[in-house]
Design a protein that fits this description.
This protein has about 170 residues and is of the alpha+beta class. It is built from 6 helices and 7 strands. The protein is globular. The N and C termini lie close together (about 10 Å). The N terminus is likely disordered.
Length: about 170
Amino acid sequence: IHVFCNHQAFYLTPSLRDTPLLVQGGELGERSKRRIVINRMQVHNKESLLEFRRRLRRDMTEAERLLWKELRAGRFNGIKFKRQHSIGNYILDFYCARFRLVIELDGMPHREREQKKADAMRDRHLQEMNYTVLRFWNFEVESSIEKVLRKISQTIQLAKTTSNYQTEPTV
């Protein structure tokens, strides 16, 4: 979460969300409090990625279409998923805010050494932000979607027992 006050940026992690905001020089006055703008768009669904996200939603792979058919509109155990949601500069194939779950589907380009490195760095960065990342090969979705859905369900059950679980989605 980014908080802007008098052109200075302050960063709050999710664990500090309920902590009183302290500003250098003391407490905020009522007028200053009204001017604070919490701008989640800096992290989630950046405006600069909007057109690219729309194009990715329009031009989904067959595996993405199959999985989206199962996840969309709360069809998967009543859980809300989004597709082509961005966090930072990363555009995620599927995202569930309630369980901080990221699902990525990978095709042949992800077998290349450089892409594997980039994927590992991306996963590590998302995990550092307390997201759980699941990766599946496109052929897994196309040939045995039941196994994929079972793995997603198991991950959600595990998330319910950890601090990642939120009773209300944040974004």
